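Need residues for this backbone.
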């Protein structure tokens, strides 16, 4: 629906319209509003909360970041104003990634002797049972550890 805004028209959405456009529930929009991730642009004469197109874009970013496995708290720090908060969130994610990589390296070192003892046919059989992504990841880790590729 179009609403007048100081002489100009701009698109404003009721909660249900915004929810439908972003494929989330109206309760999700209520919750995001409550925790401060989004805010209504204005209220209608009948006291409906109305959200602008900026909120539509913000909501799409939030949903994309959720799919990337960020928590709502991490998303809030990334999206809300304040470069320091965004830098801190990025640093936290990089640190978590570094810790995860260290854990993978430890696990690869632990499994490397077992893999080295496999006969070529056993290694080929193992590779066929793994997804291509998993096999590529194992081979990359072995190469990083100075070992040759499987099979």
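Answer:
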């Amino acid at each position: 629906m179009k609403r007048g805004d100081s002489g100009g028209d701009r698109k404003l959405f009721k909660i249900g319209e915004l929810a439908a456009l972003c494929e989330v529930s109206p309760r999700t929009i209520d919750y995001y509003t409550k925790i401060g991730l989004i805010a209504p642009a204005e209220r209608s004469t009948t006291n409906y909360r109305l959200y602008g197109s900026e909120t539509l874009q913000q909501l799409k970013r939030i949903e994309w970041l959720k799919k990337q496995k960020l928590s709502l708290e991490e998303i809030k720090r990334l999206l809300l104003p304040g470069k320091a908060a965004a830098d801190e969130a990025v640093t936290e994610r990089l640190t978590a990634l570094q810790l995860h990589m260290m854990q993978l390296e430890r696990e690869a070192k632990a499994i490397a002797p077992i893999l080295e003892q496999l006969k070529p046919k056993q290694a080929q059989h193992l590779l066929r049972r793994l997804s291509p992504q998993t096999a590529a990841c194992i081979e990359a880790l072995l190469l990083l550890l100075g070992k040759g590729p499987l099979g």
